[in-house]
Amino acid sequence: MNKRELEPGIKTELEAGTSYGDYLQLPTLLSAQVPRSTHHDEVLFIIQHQTSELWMKLLIHELDAAVALVRRDELEPSFKILSRVGQIQRMLFEQWSVLETLTPTEYLSFRGALGPASGFQSHQYRAVEFLLGNKDEKALLPFRHQPTVHAELARRLRTPSLYDEFLHHLARTGLPVPQEVLERDVSQPYEKHDGVVAVFRRVYEEPERFWDAYEMAEKLVDVEERFQLWRYRHMMTVMRVIGFKTGTGGSSGVGFLRKALDLRFFPELWDVRTELSPPAR
């Protein structure tokens, strides 16, 4: 018989509030897809972006935990968290393959329903960028109509990033991180400093001595590389679907996204690679 018998121990009598659906709030979650058009493919567009926001919620949760650990000089536990961050980033990257099945003709059939809505207005995406150090006060402007969201992003703008906390950790271990870097205004974009390149050169030249710092540096490079790959695939997906049209939120579209590829979270971790020489024998 091509049938699996129901095991007697499986619970089928459930009280209200105790089921899988109750635990996951599925009635709320699955009723949140409300298309504004009658076009079949708008559901894909909505779910793609809603699931991205769920993954970003987890990304923020994990990055906040990593920041707290680094602030307490607990680098090793943060490595596990950053490994999870990498897998979340992988999921965000792979999701673009689903949206890439949307043809230009299909998207244009419901694009007008979006009005001025745009991914640029994702407050969670902005929170991730602030956590990683891409600070920009002007990025708060689209959230002025949401006081609670605006206040939270303003708080994150003024809070040290993961990289800021790592540099402070290095200073506490005795490495000569320049004082002007440690005392900088963390609400401003981070600028490369040759003194920090020199610190990382020492870390990379003596990995056995500075193993935790060395490992953390590589974890951060992983995070930034994956983020840049995500940015690039986002740009390519937009180009594939709308070409060089203006974005729904008023940006130049592909041109605006391309400029983001020039931004770096951890510039010295990339520049130090050029500075390194083969170890002496």
Description:
There is one protein chain. With 281 residues, the chain is mainly alpha-helical. It has helices at 20-23, 26-30, 42-71, 75-99, 104-108, 123-132, 147-157, 162-172, 179-182, 194-205, 211-242, 254-260, 267-275. Helix 11 (211-242) packs antiparallel against helix 12. The radius of gyration is 23 Å and the shape is globular.
Write the layout of secondary structure elements.
Blueprint: H1 20-23, H2 26-30, H3 42-71, H4 75-99, H5 104-108, H6 123-132, H7 147-157, H8 162-172, H9 179-182, H10 194-205, H11 211-242, H12 254-260, H13 267-275
Kindly report the average pLDDT value. 96
Structural class: mainly alpha
SSE topology string: HHHHHHHHHHHHH
- The radius of gyration is 23 Å
- How many strand elements? 0
- Residue share in helix: 55-70%
Distance between the termini: 70 Å
Segments where pLDDT lies below 50 for 5+ residues? none
The biggest beta sheet, please? none
How many helices? The count is 13
General shape: globular
- Strand-residue proportion: under 5%
Compact description:
By secondary structure, the protein is mainly alpha-helical. It contains 13 helices and no strands. The chain starts with 19 loop residues before the first helix and ends in a 6-residue tail after the last helix.
